[in-house]
Structures are given as structure tokens and as C-alpha cells.
Design brief:
The structure is a homodimer of 314-residue chains.
Chain A (H helix, E strand, L loop, with lengths): L2 H12 L3 E5 L8 H11 L3 H19 L5 E4 L1 H5 L2 H17 L3 E8 L3 H11 L17 E4 L5 H14 L2 E7 L6 H4 L9 H13 L9 E7 L4 H10 L3 E5 L9 H4 L10 E5 L1 H4 L11 H22 L7
Helix pairs in contact in A: 2-3, 3-5, 3-13, 6-7
Chain lengths: 314, 314
């Protein structure tokens, strides 16, 4: 089944537009998890990997009922080398076994022949030994469009062939996203609008039965006005919306990322959910706190959608 | 010592502006290497990693005398998961032990707090267990500027703190690099010129004793006219020049990437050197062929520089 259709099925099942970001930071992992890892594996990168995996499993168990999709951020794993990448892979596998979809947030990008290697690795089938097949379990990947179409097409081809999805950076949530993305062209359009038009082209052939394309876009919650413009350009493209919570975006801010049908966006929160246990208003048990925070976020978004008469489930 | 100074010292020592791209592709690795790996490790990703590492060691031994720096392309390793990343790490370590500098070609990019995790991982010191330090051996990293300044500054900070370098994508070598990079702004400048101006700003504080900054730029050999413009904007920034050989760039095409002092660019070739053994005009021994190809490229560039009176070593 087309990735966008799979995503929407899962969103309906959980009645939730939330994506939980799995961005483990060693200094925020509960001490008992770390102590156990050090005891078994010493002060090694392997112990970091085991800590991350145990922490993530707890989060996934806590949030699985209330989220359709999770988004591990590769940077937090990759900085610990191959053991970190092993933790990433094991986290993806555990999320899939828990019935969740996965976005590998890696923002990969390169020229065509190299982009194909990334596409094969995350979404397709890398060249491997005769008679053997190598499959990455993640459902989708974030990509960066600086290199233009021939750097993106290999990912689109993999999506088409293997029912996977991508989210292309269009307007990101960070303070200086405008340095490049907001530049105005001679034709009086913003760079993010130009990229949005390309996303529409790349996604045209991958529109699923429910009208959305598997070629999506990253549109930050922190820029609601730009989101409105982008929603109009990319009518059929799913948005991945970062910037909720810790970065300052609210439930009301993200509503313009949705279409009138009540679909079209998954809203990510990372720190605000996985490290909720460090905030006074939640439980000090990290799993219980994550569950409280994800339910709160799910309901806040659904309530904001209902106010605008955009809630899909009545 | 500042990264740019270290790079220039190594370039002088080898009298070579060549960078060798270590982009292993399983179907182009000599059969005897692969047979041995399968025999010892089965048809696994571990066997792929062992094949890549043995192949790379042979290439590094063959080219070390004639190149200052090597550039493993992360995509080709990462597609094989954590074993692939292990091969990447072991390749970097072997190159360093062989007296070479290393560019990790990973084109990483993200919002500030996440970019910091990538910067710590590739160039700095990731948060780790108390009393232990984690160090990545690579000297520099390629980065993608779509997210603007706050996505790049963490890398610049790591370069400053740890004498490392970055190369920011400015004008890439691929056919559709113009989709975004060539768009013309209202102020009548191209996007690649706008990014170039940012690169100058980011690099200002990191200029070494010989006048070049550790904050470099990626400028493709396939666009000589754009390279001339960019050389004028980024006077003090080192260029990493891809696109030589297999992608169509010639020695004459890359000359405008150099300053009049005969420095300012390292020119990369990957396939054209590491898989030279598959071309009739070179040896069918892959190491000997790589050596022939790297010497040929070094001399071609030096000859072209000499013709323009830009050769640093007379």
C-alpha cells in the first residue's frame, strides 16, 4: 500500500496526528538505565547504544497507542559511531514490531548516483550478495533539496518501487531558516515556494487512494503564515511539522498545516514528550510522563482542529 | 594547527592538489577480495564491510604518496547499516595512520541543536560517560546550507575548538544543481552567490597563517564559469572540487577554482581512480591502476596550473 495511505490508515486508527521524535540525549536518560548499561558493557559506545535502545523501547511502549508514527533523529545516534547506528536500527525494528510507522530523520542529500546509495539504503534494496536481500525497515526518510531534482529523483523512485515515503525540507522550523529559504526571486516568489512547486512535481505520480502523495514536505510549526501559503501550493502533499512544544509552536499554530479534510500533517514533538519526566507537571517516571505528554498533545491538536471544524473523526 | 594550514602543508609535501574519493561499490570490488570476505563472514553485511576495508586499504597504500587528502563518501557505507559505518570508521583510521587528511563526505545538515550533535560526532566531542572522551578521527566534513546560519554555526564552532574544517555546498557538480542554486534573487544575485557570501562570514574567524580559512566550499568542476565568480567572492576559502573525470570535468576546467598563488582548491576524483583497473588504459591490478590514475591526475592539474603560471612549486 502507498505510504501516504498507510500513514492515514494509522492516523485514523490512533485518532492522532502526533509524531514522536526519538532523539535520545545521554545526559537526559534516566540514571538507572545508564547504570545498568555501564555495569554490563563498561563506559563504552556499546553502553550508550544499549541505554538508548532501552530508553526508546520504554517510550515506544508508552506512546504506541496514541501516535501513528515515530521519528528517530539520526544525528543523536550517529555521533556514537557504529554502535549508535546499531541502536538506531534496533529502535526502528522495535517501533515497527509495535505497529508504528517510522520516519528516519536523516536529511540526506547528494548528487544522483550517490543519492541512489542513500535511497537504496533507507528505502530500497542496496546492491548485495547474490541470492541475499538487504531491507531497511523504516517507512520514510527526510531529505534536503539543495542539489535540485537529480538529487531527489532517486529517493522518489525508491518510494514508488517499495511503497515508501520522503519528506523534503521546504520551510524549516529554526530561527535562521530564512537565510536561504526566504530569499525572494526575480519572479517575486520565495525559495521555499520554488521548492514547494518542485515537491508537487516530484510527488505527482505517487498519489494514493485517499488523495495524498507519498512525497511529503517539512514545514515548521514556527512559521504559520508560511505554512498557509505552502498548504495552498502543496495541496496533495503530506506535511511533517517540526517545531511543536520545545521549539515554540502551539496546537493553534499547526492548524494551517492541515487541509479542510482534517488530514495532511503529522506534527512532531521530541524533547517535549520523551523528556517530559524532567518537567514538574508530569510524572517523574519517564514512560508515564511520555504517555501523559503525548495524550495531552494529541488532544490539544484534535481540539484545535475541532474548533476550526477540521477534525476528521466526529 | 588550523585545518587549512594542515591541508596546505600536506599539499606541499605531496605536491598534489588531488583528493581521492573512497566510494566503494560492491559490484566493482575485485572478486578475490569479496571471495575471501564471504569465506570468512558469509554473505553478510559484515562481509561487505570487510571487503570495503580491504579494498580501501589497498587504494590508500597505492595513492598515499600522491594525494594530500581522501574523501570517503558516507552513503556508500551507510547503506549497509552499522557494519558499513564500522568500515567507514576503520577506513578513516587507516587513512590517518597513513599520514593522510580525511574529509568525511556526509553532507550533514539540521537545525542548531541537532546540527550540534552531528558536529560533535564528526568534528568535536560527543557527550559521553564521565571521565571518557570520544574522538572522531576525520579532519573535516561536508555540510549542506539549506537551513541557514544556525544550522552551520555548530560546525564552525567545532572547527574552531578542535582545528577541524568543513566544506559547505555552494555550487554542486550535478546536472540539476541549478534548480535551486542558480535561481536569481531580486537583488540580481544567484543563490550560490548568496551562500558564498555566508561562507565568507562563517569563515572569517578561522583564517590560518597562510591566509586560508578552515571553512571551505564545495564548487563543482563541471561549472567553470560559476567557479570564477565564486573564487572572487570566497577569496580566502578553500574549495573542494568534485566532478573531475567520471563526471566530465577536466584539468583545465578546474584551474579557475585556484587562486593566483596556486592554492585554494583540492580536486576530487572517486571512480576515475579507485576503479581505474576496469579501464583498458590502466593496469588490471586495482592498486597499480589507482596509482597510475592518481599520478596522471596530479600531473594533469599541475601542468594546467603551470600553463597559467599558477603552479606553487617551481
Amino acid at each position: 500500500m502507498n505510504f501516504a495511505d498507510r500513514l492515514m490508515e494509522k492516523i485514523d486508527q490512533k485518532q492522532s496526528h502526533v509524531c514522536v521524535g526519538l532523539d535520545p540525549r545521554l545526559n537526559q536518560i534516566p540514571e538507572n538505565i545508564k547504570d545498568k548499561a555501564i555495569k554490563n558493557y563498561g563506559k563504552t559506545t556499546e553502553a550508550v547504544a544499549k541505554s538508548f535502545l532501552e530508553f526508546n523501547k520504554g517510550i515506544i511502549d508508552a506512546v504506541a497507542e496514541h501516535t501513528a508514527i515515530v521519528k528517530p533523529q539520526m544525528a543523536f545516534y550517529e555521533q556514537y559511531g557504529y554502535w549508535g547506528v546499531k541502536a538506531f536500527e534496533d529502535t526502528v525494528a522495535y517501533a515497527k514490531d509495535s505497529g508504528l510507522l517510522v520516519i528516519s530523520d536523516a536529511k540526506r542529500n547528494d548528487i544522483g548516483s550517490t543519492a541512489k546509495a542513500y535511497a537504496d539504503g533507507y528505502l530500497g534494496r542496496p546492491d548485495f550478495w547474490e541470492g541475499e536481500t538487504l531491507v531497511n525497515k523504516s517507512d520514510s526518510l527526510t531529505v534536503t533539496p539543495y542539489l535540485g531534482s537529480d538529487g531527489i529523483i532517486p529517493f522518489v523512485d525508491s518510494c514508488q518501487e517499495h511503497d515508501k515515503g520522503i519528506f523534503t525540507l521546504v520551510k524549516t522550523s529554526n530561527p535562521s531558516s530564512g537565510d536561504l529559504q526566504d530569499l525572494v526571486t526575480k519572479a517575486d516568489s520565495r525559495i521555499y515556494e520554488e521548492i514547494a512547486k518542485l515537491v508537487v512535481c516530484w510527488g505527482e505520480e505517487l498519489i494514493g487512494e485517499r488523495g495524498y502523495s507519498s512525497i511529503g514536505a517539512v514545514v515548521g510549526a514556527t512559521y504559520p503564515s508560511e505554512a498557509r501559503t505552502l498548504r495552498e501550493i502543496m495541496v496533495n502533499n503530506y506535511f511533517l511539522v517540526p517545531g511543536y512544544g520545545a521549539q515554540g509552536g502551539s496546537a493553534d499554530d499547526v492548524i494551517d498545516c492541515f487541509n479542510d479534510d482534517g488530514y495532511g500533517a503529522v506534527v512532531n514533538s521530541s524533547r517535549g514528550i520523551i523528556f517530559a519526566y524532567q518537567q514538574k507537571r508530569y510524572s517523574n517516571d519517564y514512560k508515564e510522563a511520555a504517555k501523559q505528554a503525548v495524550i495531552e498533545m494529541k488532544e490539544a491538536i484534535n481540539n484545535s482542529l475541532a474548533k476550526e471544524d477540521k477534525l476528521a473523526w466526529q
